[in-house]
Design brief:
heterotrimer, A alpha/beta, B mainly alpha, C mainly alpha, A: alpha/beta, 6-stranded mixed sheet, 4-stranded antiparallel sheet, 9 helices, 10 strands, C: mainly alpha, MetI-like fold, 2 domains, globular
Chain lengths: ~240, ~220, ~280
Amino acid sequence: MAAEAIITCEGVVKRFRGFVALKGVDLAVRAGEVVCIVGPSGGGKSTLLRTINALESIDGGSITVDGRRLPGSGRDVRHIRREVGMVFQSFNLFPHMTVRRNVALAPMRARKLGAAEANARAERLLARVGIAEQIDKYPDQLSGGQQQRVAIARALAMEPRVMLFDEPTSALDPEMVKEVLEVMRELAGSGMTMLVVTHELAFAREVADRILFMVEGAIAVAAPPKEFFANTADARLASFLSKML
Amino acid sequence: MHFDTSVIAQNLPLLARGLELTLLLVAASLILGTAFGALACVGKLLGRGLLYWIAVGYIALLRGVPELIVMFWIYYCGPLLLGARLSSFAAALAAMSLYAGAYLAEIFRAGVLAVPRGHVEAARALGLAEPFVWLDIILPQALRTMIPAFIGVVTIIVKVSGLASAIGVAELVYEATIVSGQSYRYFELFTAVGACYFALIFPLSLLAQRYEAARARRLR
Amino acid sequence: MDLRPALTARPPRSAADGHAATVTATDGAPGRRRLRIDGTDVVSFVLGAAILVAVASAIKWSFVATLDPGVLLQYWRPLLRGALTTLAITGAALAVGLAVGILLAVLQQLPIGPARWLILVYVEVWRNTPLIVQLFWIHFGLPLLTGISTTAFASGFLALALQSSAYLADIARAGIQAVPRGQWEAARALGLPAVSLWGEIVLPQALRVMIPPFTNLALSFLNGSALLGLLQVGELMTAATRISDYTFKPIEVMSAAGLLYLLLNLAIGRAAQGLERLTAVPR
């Protein structure tokens, strides 16, 4: 595991009005690594994820993604966003476009791909996430699980080097969680670098190379799954795990 | 060209008299309009029968025909139809009241219907007599929800009042037209008159917004 | 007397709904259809009849008998032409107003402090003064300032376009703000350029939200445009006053003009419903 870090966070600080969401977070993610972030809500997990593709500006420290540094110029931000795919808890599909167009749009606009090529890519990716038959439907005609799989395909269409998942299954009915996790598992197996904020501990244990426990704006524990679940030194982690398991 | 304020200062008494008439017209038509609106609202709430259909027709007609047509119609046709003299002030007042009433009817109705059904049922279940259900439960809540929309109608009526100048009511716009026609200082006078209307309407708009925001917060 | 049935029912959407809501009584005989005449019918009839009698007794019927609808047969062409002009000038002014309004709303979203304030002042000034003052200000006042005199038609058009741009800036702002935050974030996270973000994600969704308020505005401007008749712009109100003055038949002509406005209103309302259905996203 000597691969170079593709994401490096150094002392990242994020303040919201009156409270500090990230208290100097350090993190390095290597290419091909799957890192899951767990922890109680309000611990800064989502905020950390959102700072990495500049959806939140940072108030201290720095983030380097694929050689570009944040805070940085508009060009750096655009570069990072193109190289980093993001999947949201609430899907955020564009409701006024067909599934196909949802997936094909960004490659055409941000990568200057031709329409035919973008559509072909959309079809291929949608087949990969198991949505091939729904390709000409609108998002609101799909189930939550299907929408989230489309959202994954949409992010993949940019051929990103890193995928960020912000609680991708939290808004889903239990029976749909599985189908989305299945897609993510397959993606992890293909060697994609992934940073996943999740409450699905079983998934994290199975897929992650490393699990981070974030609480009160800092990473309290970072360890491979086996050690992570065996950890009894950190009282907050122990209490969190006992509540979740 | 320079902005000559002296022409405004010289004609201030005249303009003030115009403003006075504007305010009188607005206040009177709001009072009468409230009466028309309440009656039409009752008609709509009854939901059937003669009064209901009169209310439906009245509201559709007054909301679908331009204010100016209504005003001209009453001013020119009223005397012929009634066989009586009709001052321009009376014609303007009638048109504006009818116009306000059509708006207010729908606002009143929406206010009454917005009172949660459970409150009314609870009041009845407690054995409250029907007049008290209205006085103590429905109207206080309905009136509160109506406030922003009512203020909105006030601003509309202030704006509509300017049309009365077209049938010769000596309100603010009329006086400004006369004075500027004599002095040829249209720019100064209409800027001043515009500012005057703005000073009347803008605070009302703010107030309505304030109420609306407060209500939205309560509902959340 | 019973105002309660309508009250305990859901707010009626239409006259038909309102009527249906009263069929089932709420107390006494729950759920049973009530066909006998009750207090509601009596009150409705008595009050309605009182109004009709009062109006009827005030009208001089001998004069009504002399009304001459034939005048309309003679003058329907200029009236119709006026109606079409009304439609054209209002439509054109609203189109310009919509473009300017959207532009202002977009500019207002950008973090440029002074621009925001200027736009805010612009919007509030046009919204909080009467159209008639704006019209006279533009037609009589502005030429003295700029030295360029405008025709009545141009002044009328300008007044409608400017005032509507202010209202539409506000409507567009609300429409833009109605687009969920997640849509912006998703577009940004995908690296979409600003033109695409606005043109393909935000505005298409905002425009759909804007249709109902835009329709209301269009209807109020259609009626507001009657004001241009004061400057003899040549639209429906101008035609109506001219014909009425010429023929001395105000009742026939003004009523016909009012009816034409009413029909235009209904037609536009219907068209807007169609547009809403047409642009609805399948779900």
